[in-house]
Amino acid sequence: MLLCDIGNTTYHFFDGIEHYKKDAKLFDPSSIKEEIFYICVNKQAKELIKPLKNWIDLSTYVDMRNYYETMGIDRVTSCEAIEDGVIVDAGSAVTIDVVKSGRFEGGFIYPGSKAMNECYRNISDALAYSFNFELDLGKMPKNSRDAISYGYLKLLRNEVVSYGMDIYLTGGDAAEFAKIFPYSHIDETLLFKGMKNIMKKANIC
């Protein structure tokens, strides 16, 4: 069984054993002849895939009554992967979603680290620092890099930790965010687990 998460920059594949990525601008979806189940947030890619009968859109099998209409299918699918916990998907945006007893309780969207870096840089070149994820968030900072890092990271960490639930980290910056969530679970295949659960509920696997 081949699964695919299509984002704005990559096609992320999982064959049940390994996962790998293809550049969204260069990859030709018609090159795959086997049956493939996918979710997609990339409008251009979705148009390319639409006429391909072997590409099956899993978003049509999701019971959206548990979610809200404009919620991204990638967030929905990750929520389908767990019974209880807080999901922190650290990508171009950081999304935080809470699931209790298999039900989506709500969530929020935070700027990703690169986007927030740009915000500070736009304010002043003097604030053009990368974030220090190894900062001691228990102490008030005494330099500019740590000051912007503290303002970005501590608010996020405190909110996530306040739920008192297991934390699941996924996304491209998961390893960095694990430094402020040392007891979290890093799972690069979390979304694919959600896809499998959607398929089980729909009796298509």
UniProtKB/TrEMBL annotation:
Give the record's keywords alphabetically: ATP-binding, Coenzyme A biosynthesis, Cytoplasm, Kinase, Nucleotide-binding, Potassium, Transferase
Biological or metabolic pathway of the protein: Cofactor biosynthesis; coenzyme A biosynthesis; CoA from (R)-pantothenate: step 1/5
PANTHER family with a match to the protein in the record? TYPE III PANTOTHENATE KINASE
Q: Which cofactor does it need?
A: NH4(+); K(+)
Q: Which residues form a coiled coil?
A: none
UniProt record similarity statement:
Belongs to the type III pantothenate kinase family.
Query: Care to name a GO molecular-function term for this sequence?
Result: ATP binding
According to the UniProt entry, what is the EC number of this protein?
Answer: 2.7.1.33
Source taxon at top rank: Bacteria
| Catalytic activity as recorded in UniProt | (R)-pantothenate + ATP = (R)-4'-phosphopantothenate + ADP + H(+)
| Listed name of the protein | Type III pantothenate kinase
Any one Pfam family here would be: Pan_kinase
Q: Which GO terms describe its cellular component?
A: cytoplasm
Gene Ontology biological process terms in this record: coenzyme A biosynthetic process
Its subunit composition reads:
Homodimer.
Location in the cell reads: Cytoplasm
Q: What is its main location?
A: cytoplasm
Q: Which NCBIfam families match?
A: PRK13333.1
